[in-house]
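Cross-posted from the bioinformatics board.
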Amino acid sequence: MANVKSLTTGDIAKYCDVNLRTVIRWIDKGSLKGYKLPGRGNNRVTVDNFVLFLRQNNMPVPPELLPKNKTVLIVDDDKDMGNAIKRVLKKGGFECDTATNGFLAGSKLMQHKPSIMTLDLTMPGLNGFELLKHLRADEQFQDLKILVISALNQESLDEALALGANAVLSKPFEKDQLLSLVNEMTL
Amino acid sequence: MANVKSLTTGDIAKYCDVNLRTVIRWIDKGSLKGYKLPGRGNNRVTVDNFVLFLRQNNMPVPPELLPKNKTVLIVDDDKDMGNAIKRVLKKGGFECDTATNGFLAGSKLMQHKPSIMTLDLTMPGLNGFELLKHLRADEQFQDLKILVISALNQESLDEALALGANAVLSKPFEKDQLLSLVNEMTL
DNA sequence: GTAGCAAATGTCACAAATGTCGTGTATTAT
DNA sequence: ATAATACACGACATTTGTGACATTTGCTAC
């Protein structure tokens, strides 16, 4: 059970504190999406589908099912700025990955599944507001914590928060500010 | 594991998140079609048979197992142009996915693992040449076929070819040209 | 409140499927 | 070639699906 990609009915029964029989009924009824192994039809549910199911029913999501990795994706077209952020976060014990354009941001987001992303709002060719909106509209990025880092005025930062950013940080900023904000987001 | 044509029981066990012993039982029972090597009878399963097996049991199919998948990612900032390309390719029997900016291109590329990509060279905020270079430098995209579609002059198209594009098509183009080029790339 | 009712969930026992472990051997990497 | 790894197989442990039935829960009307 080291690297769990799928769950058995028993696993889910324990997570939901419910009887195994009930889990099977959920699957049979279709409210929880699963699939059956060829043998006798033992059920399996992908972690993604299970988390989706939990959310749809306002049930608590066990933290161990969420990608709790300490990986941060730093999206900033300014390499120096990106590296500066990286240095601070690395010292804070985070794995860091940087992306200097939209393509890299997209591919690295899907590939490494970071749990936190820092986002510069003003990048040539990549509208940070649009990106925020898109991410927040996508089910699979619900758990991604987004820290907006920008030199724009407070109004813009407020807009970013309204669009779903978890926190904002105005440039220039203190290293301690950055680190403590990111640390808060891991909780 | 670059170009796998057959899978071992261990591979399948990992894909299905199931014990190796169970995979062997599936094969022995005949629900998963495989063949045995002469030595001690180690099992092998062709990718095709494995995918068939997954489908028959409504199990999730890992996208990377569909190397010859007829999925095309259309990267073009012009939505009308993108849709036009999509129409043509859909008629030709391809699954199509469109991306209008770098972020979408990156994330959809990683998520759906298309085998073919059409690329507009001149997009605001996404340099097609840079993207080409980057993709060709990345091991995991070696098998991705790239068709560059551009209104730029021949010189630029040649440069794109030099950078690793598998084919180029200058705008405007005929539908037949597009389809036949894409068809060639699936071979 | 509570009586009644329907739907959802829990319990139980058994058979079948899957997991675990150890050993010996083939296969792959160095 | 040699070492490291992956694999098959048997025997046994554990989990799971199923059906029938008991119990709980949520709701409505009194």
